[in-house]
Amino acid sequence: MKKVLFVILDGAGDGLKKGTSLELAHKPILDEFTRNGIGGLIDNNLGDHPDSGNSTFTLFGYPIEKYPGRGYLDAMGIGLQQRPNTLYMRANFATAEKKTKKIAEGQFASRSIVVDRRAGRDETGLKELAKDISEVNIEGFTIKFYKSVGHRGVITISNFNVSSNVSDTDGGKEGEFIEEVKAIKSDTKSQRTAAILNKWLTHVTKILEEHPINKQRNIPANCILLRGASEFSVEKSFKETYGMRGAVVAKSPVVRGIG
Prior knowledge:
Elements: E1 15-16, E2 19-20, H1 21-24, H2 28-35, H3 52-59, H4 70-77, E3 86-104, E4 107-116, H5 126-132, E5 135-138, E6 141-147, E7 152-158, H6 188-210, H7 212-216, E8 223-230, H8 238-242, H9 253-258
Antiparallel strand pairs: 1-2, 3-4, 3-7, 3-8, 5-6, 6-7
């Protein structure tokens, strides 16, 4: 059987002021591959900005309906043990400021607005910050924070009453209000989980805002953005699905989780 090397240039097509990265870069080898290969486009049916997780998952031929969730895959990618009755969420260190914003004609609100979703990609002191929010117990729920690569992290909540039917606080772009976590379903578990997450966010935001590390940073990592709530999931392996053996070499935790 032939071997296949499948290279994914995640983020390489990001738009710049005068074109895309791929248009502007000097890339003779990629150009040669393109001239002698086959190119094409895949329609994006996942919304405005599909992330690395669901994009990579579908590139490997899996239907998006089986996507186990960003939080779960990031957790697997940093080596966390798979556990039932546990909620996993992707967690970014980020930078926020209190600002007043117009929400309707004649109506204004003063809340925290995301200034930088990745806290400047500056890793200064993030290990210390992560250590000081590493475990919090709120009303019988244990919330743990694990630092991942760069500004990234994962939180877990362990409790038999936990639910993944909760919304994100990360809207995917700067300049927007940081929203509260909301229950997607009206059941008690979902509402309880959302309430616990909001209490945790309030607690850790206070720690981060007052932390001496953030007094030294050029861009403070003074809040946590959450997304991708998901739970324990079992999927058929690539070999079971396609009859081929595969291996993944990647730095990104979500891609390693898929691997």
